[in-house]
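Homework help board

Subject: predicted structure for assignment chain

Our instructor gave us this sequence and asked us to write out the predicted structure in token form, then describe one feature. I got the tokens but I'm not sure how to describe them. Can anyone check?
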Amino acid sequence: MNLQVCLIPALSDNYIFLLRCQQTNITAVVDPGDAKPVLNWLQQRDWQLDMVLNTHHHSDHVGANLILKEKTGCKVIGAEKDKHRIPGIDQTVKQGDQILVGHHQSTILEVPGHTSGHIAYWFAADNGLFCGDTLFSLGCGRLFEGTAEQMWQSMLKIRQLPADTKIYCAHEYTQANAAFALYLEPANQQLRDVYTSICDKRTQDVATIPSNLGFECQFNPFLRVDQDDFQTALGLKDSSPEKVFAQIRYQKDNFVS
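My token output:
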């Protein structure tokens, strides 16, 4: 049976994900920034929480760790490099390590850039990547602790995953990201159609997450900085991918849609 994934909106624009093995009833929560909606969801379904999976240390991703641990006795898992910044951490993981949610296996990918210790959880058999704030639909995280070079290497690591991988990112930023992508490529009619579709979804309060890696590779500017056509559209032909990445990340940081 496939891994059950439940999307829980939280705070202003976060998504918390509840993962459940339907054979064993083992349940994990990814990046709980707020305990109340998680506890409500569990109570309404009479589910027990077994583990917390943190991608990075920011408070909107770990803010509920200690409350959930106190209320449910769950285990907290996070990056070895971030163990001093993950509240309640019980188990540390690094690149290539594997963890199980019931019968569902996840491989740890180290994807620094947004933060120095950022990780993602890749469930290969279930075609799912829980990537926190590294990759967003049509965007990527700000470089709070890392460099453009580090983040580009993280993009490459993600880009090599299968095209049908579902991208479970932690924020509903897609509409703003699409506006910026269209600003970079105003003549891209396919992207204009994508933007219109996203706006329609958000008008109806429909989530744009999960996304799909194949879609992201086609339209996400931060995954395309080494492509000739994209560099040409930006007037940066024959530039290094790191240079293009740094420039558009700077532009996005200062972009007002």
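Reply (TA_rk): Your tokens look well-formed. For the description, you could write something like this. The radius of gyration is 18 Å. That's the kind of observation they're looking for.
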